[in-house]
Amino acid sequence: MSISLKENRHETLTAAQKETLEELRETSVPRYLFRGWHYGSGGGPKETINSTEEIIPHGSMNDREGHDFYELQESELKSMLECHYDGKTDIPSEISSWAASLMMIIFFAKRQQNLGYKGVHIALIDTHQLANDVLVWHAPHLNQEFEGCIHEYFAHGPIRGPGYKAVPYDLLEERGVDDKDSLHSIAELFELFEMPVATALACARPRPWCYVNMPARLDAASRKALEREAVYLNIHYPQPADAHTAHWLLRGSVLTGPTPDQDFPDVRQWIDLLRVMAKKVHEREVKATMRGKKRKEMEDEEDWRPARRRKTRAK
């Protein structure tokens, strides 16, 4: 599902288009997305800001105030999105690009470092903690012409605040990703976002649950491996309280491929892992609630019995 933008329509999006985009934004965008940048990204600090504090796209720089996404005409949206994707500067972009695959971003950061760029960082956003006017979509949802671009997500508006974190790539490289100890060591660099980073790194290589769609005989073992990993990671990293209700964790909600040109099995594994982690936390919370109710019932019963005995003796 996506919308089709017309270059000759000089009106804002229709109500039906807005409804479609809002549904896609709420149900088909991962909560956590990643980005690689360096000090010269987007033309450098005179053109755009990429820092540990904020990401400011071209369209919000140099006294430009930017726009409300839904105030832009359809033709303006189409032109801006296409210029942004093609890396052109004809139209100041109000968009920053992100990805669901942490491994793709790590490879990108390493390449930028090898090319000699300074200040290479890896950034993360929690799309649930961004300012209300920052809207994020999967690129294919915004225009049918982007159907093959499943690697890219577009965030409209300046990024800053508690939903954003950036870490120098050098620090990640120093700690390595060879084992679970280094995985935790890297994840802690992202502070409040340890959990999404640790789980994404855990899915950097093929895991047994990558094959859960195979015949049932093999499926059971794969599911057990997935549940073991979920239990282990839940011990170290608490899940957000609403995670078990998140629609994006449902299989098939987020487009990960395969397409003729792209496939992101690491993202599929990551979403599967987060879904089972959330399920385990929810099950534990339900059991704790039930135990609490049972304990309260027993306490009420104990409170009642002595009172009844005392009343009998008084007679």
TrEMBL record:
Residues 285-315 are annotated as: Disordered. Residues 29-147 form the DUF7587 domain. Pfam families: DUF7587. InterPro entries: DUF7587. This is DUF7587 domain-containing protein. It comes from Pyrenophora tritici-repentis (strain Pt-1C-BFP) (Wheat tan spot fungus).
